[in-house]
Amino acid sequence: MSYLVGAFNAAYHTKIGVYHREMGIKKGGKLVIMAGAGPIGLSALTYALHRDVRPWTL
Q1: Cα–Cα 20 to 30 A to 47, which of 1, 20, 32, 35?
Q2: Distance CA 55, CA 36 (A)
């Protein structure tokens, strides 16, 4: 699980012309997990949906 937590925390967002990074996933943002049918992908999906800052869901 440590690699999943590290990957979610290492994601960052920038704006054009601004040199400030927002770390982590955005609340209500969009998240794509491609080819995540195995144990790692399902763990990433579970972690994304059960943490304090969640992406947008249907």
Answers
A1: 20
A2: 16
Fill in the amino acid letter for 15: K
User: Residue 22 forms beta bridges with which residues?
Assistant: 13
Answer yes or no: are the C-beta atoms of 9 and 23 closer than 8 Å.
yes
Could you identify the residue written with the tokens 């996933």? 25
CA distance 50 to 44: 10
- The residue whose two tokens read 């937590």 is 5
SS3 of residue 14 by DSSP: coil
Mean residue pLDDT of the chain comes to: 84
Alpha helices in 1-58 (DSSP H): 2-10, 39-49
CA angle 11–15–21, rounded 5-degree value: 40
Confidence of residue 52 (pLDDT cuts 50, 70, 90): confident
